[in-house]
Amino acid sequence: MDRYSYLIDRQHRFLLIGIVLLFVAVFFTLTGESLQGWGRPVASRAEEPKRFWWDVALFYLAGIFFIALYFFNISN
Fold it and tell me: In angstroms, rounded to a whole number, what is the distance separating the alpha carbons of residues 18 and 55?
């Protein structure tokens, strides 16, 4: 456990969450399908482009937010 303990630090959690969210957003963009809530599991780019791009944009923005939060915490 000591090998990966630096990833569990409070500062690095934000970076990890941000990177995971960005990878998920890129995955959604490349596959053309994004996850929805409980009622509708998948939104397709071809069938619901507005909803699809809204969901993908939220993942990109959340990823950027957590990475910015990481840099903000490192500088303080």
Answer: 16
- List the structure tokens of 30: 């490349």
Over the stretch 53-68, which tens digit does the pLDDT of each residue have?
999 999 999 999 999 9
Rounded to two decimals, what is the model's pTM? 0.80
Residue 59, domain extent: 2-75
Q: Looking at the DSSP assignment, which residues form a beta bridge with residue 42?
A: 35
Neighbouring-strand partners of residue 43: 34
Tokens 């303990």 — which residue?
5
Tally of domains within the chain? 1
Tell me: the pLDDT tens digits for 10-21? 668 888 899 999
C-alpha span between 69 and 76 (Å, rounded): 11
